[in-house]
Amino acid sequence: MPRALSLLPLVVAALAACAPAPAARTTATPIAAPATPTLDSDDRIRIAEAFRLGDAIGDSIWPGWTSAPFAVLLVTPEREFLVRHPRPSADFTRVGYDSLLRSEVLVRARTLSPALLATFPAVGGVPTIVVGTPRATGKSSTEWVLTLLHEHFHQLQTSRPDYYARVGALGLARGDQTGMWMLNYAFPYDSSLVQMRFGALAAHLDSALSATAPDVRQSHWLAARVARAALRAALPADDERYLAFQMWQEGVARYTELLAARFAARRFTPSAAFAALPDFVPFGAAATRIESGIHAGLRAPLARDRRVAFYPVGAATALLLDEENAEWKGGYFGEMKIER
């Protein structure tokens, strides 16, 4: 409830206390209590579809993914709705149990941006997906559901007991306690040498993923690994750790989003209610769009995309690691990098 509305009963009570007593008894007109805020029906359908898809995927993409929390905080223009959260904070009010979501739903007045798409310990110290509606985030319903799976993978990352200690051990925060260093780190994006070597890495990854002939694909993958070594040699140790961390964290999350879309296209039947939404897109088309976005990112200049350029490089590396060594995920949480 917005703060102005929360103060309204106090204002009414104060006015009533100051008013003169009526000269004659009158019949009071009952004032209806404000209705309990509820989730919009389309939002319920979308969140439920994300949970259905997550349940269908299970641990087939990532070992232990089902052990991660799947708490969601939906930010609407006026309110925030909390779903599947194990430890809600006291500022939330219970709405009731939702059988479609298989969860208690809680609500509070909006405190966060409706355009957010992020995962962090927003409530009760639990990694929580904080997300605006498709309209606010500029996504179709299908893209929005896949984004929740992307963020759910971040929940797997950040719910590991040693995650924050290991992030701190990278030594990249330089006194920043807010976590904003992950976005604002002073990487040498404008260095001509770094641009050249990063561009060579991205180009070989793009060519490897685009190749249909196995020998051509393997040739570009080997060239990409040589280019990655050359880029590593051009970077100071802190900058190399930052690049490797972003590839590990954000690049692999984008890779996971693509795998979730491919899984949904091949092995998941959308619910009738979800498929009936006006902006529904088949999951196969969404997978194609994500893959095309990875290729487009590999072809974009580092000087323009800056930190975001690391995401497609990390995603492409993970896709090619799948072909080289199907067991690579077993060591994923051992170090905050995906290259050995």
Largest sheet: 6 strands, mixed
Kindly report the average pLDDT value.
90
How many runs of DSSP E, i.e. beta strands?
Answer: 6
- List unreliable stretches of 5+ residues: 1-34
Number of helices, where a helix is a run of at least 4 consecutive DSSP H or I residues: 13
The helix content is: 40-55%
**Molecular shape:** globular
Beta-strand residue percentage:
5-15%
Number of domains: 2
Element-by-element helix/strand order: HHEEEEEEHHHHHHHHHHH
Structural class category: alpha+beta
Radius of gyration: 24 Å
Strand order of the largest sheet: 3-4-2-1-6-5
Distance between the termini: 51 Å
Descriptors:
single chain; about 350 residues; alpha+beta; 2 domains; 6-stranded mixed sheet; 13 helices; 6 strands; globular
Characterization of this structure:
The protein has 340 residues and is α+β, with helices and mostly antiparallel strands. It has helices spanning 3-18, 41-57, 134-137, 141-158, 163-169, 181-184, 192-210, 214-234, 237-267, 272-275, 283-298, 302-305, 310-324; strands spanning 72-75, 79-83, 93-98, 103-109, 117-123, 126-132. Strands 3-4-2-1-6-5 form a 6-stranded mixed β-sheet. Residues 1-34 have low confidence and may be disordered.
Compose a concise summary of this entry.
The protein folds into two domains: 41-158, no CATH class; 163-174 and 185-334, no CATH class.
Break the fold down into its secondary structure elements and pairings.
Blueprint: H1 3-18, H2 41-57, E1 72-75, E2 79-83, E3 93-98, E4 103-109, E5 117-123, E6 126-132, H3 134-137, H4 141-158, H5 163-169, H6 181-184, H7 192-210, H8 214-234, H9 237-267, H10 272-275, H11 283-298, H12 302-305, H13 310-324
